[in-house]
Amino acid sequence: MHPDDQTPAAPTPANGPSRRTFLKQTGGLLGVALAPPIASQAEAIAEKMAPASPILSGQTNVSLNINGQAKNLRLEPRTTLLDALRENLDLTGTKKGCDHGQCGACTVLVDGRRVNACLTLAVMAQGKQITTIEGLAKGDELHPMQEAFLKHDGFQCGYCTPGQIMSGVACVKEGHATTDDQAREWMSGNLCRCGAYPNILAAVREVAAQQAKG
Questions:
Q1: d(Cα 89, Cα 117) in Å, to the nearest integer?
Q2: Tens of pLDDT along 113-166?
Q3: What SS3 state is found at 185?
Q4: β pairing state of 60-66 and 129-131
Q5: Which of the pair, 187 or 55, is modelled with greater confidence?
Q6: 192 neighbors 98 (Cβ within 8 angstroms)
Q7: What's the CA gap between 115 and 134, in Å, rounded?
Q8: In whole angstroms, what is the distance from residue 196 CA to residue 204 CA?
Q9: Where do the H-state alpha helices sit in 125-179?
Q10: Distance between CA atoms of 16 and 31, rounded to whole angstroms?
């Protein structure tokens, strides 16, 4: 070192730990101190979020009340109501369209309310009254909505027709078919805008008018 050089000498181990060494040491100590509580909290949250009931797998007994009749089936828990109706009970009047709840072709009534059967698990429908298009008529006597569809020729390809009829029945019962615009709005989940749509609307409106008269 030059005699005139005034630069301070670098700290040596004898002068105490460097700043970098101090940070490493304190970081490690904090990690040790904090890790166990965080891990414990994560485990507690995971336990709270775990399903309360055991996971069902394999076929299980399912009892459905469909069109006034009890039906006992063996189904996978993931089976939709739509597949149970069509594949297991041969009730093919309920149509499979988009299979994503977007077209309404699979509309059925569960306790009088419209549902998309493709989005409803069969096991969830146990203990409820399920009505399909096959259950509307009483023997040879058609439901007024079915008669109105025939009268107004509310068909074209016919694929959407069962879902439209089921939705129309519920729409009238709900009191949501007092005007053309209202009926269109409340049946907008049933997709069909082909040449038969004005006739479908006329059928729904006619039944609504009949029921309004009593």
A1: 14
A2: 999 999 999 999 999 999 999 999 999 999 999 999 999 999 888 899 999 999
A3: helix
A4: parallel
A5: 187
A6: no
A7: 16
A8: 13
A9: 144-151, 161-174
A10: 23
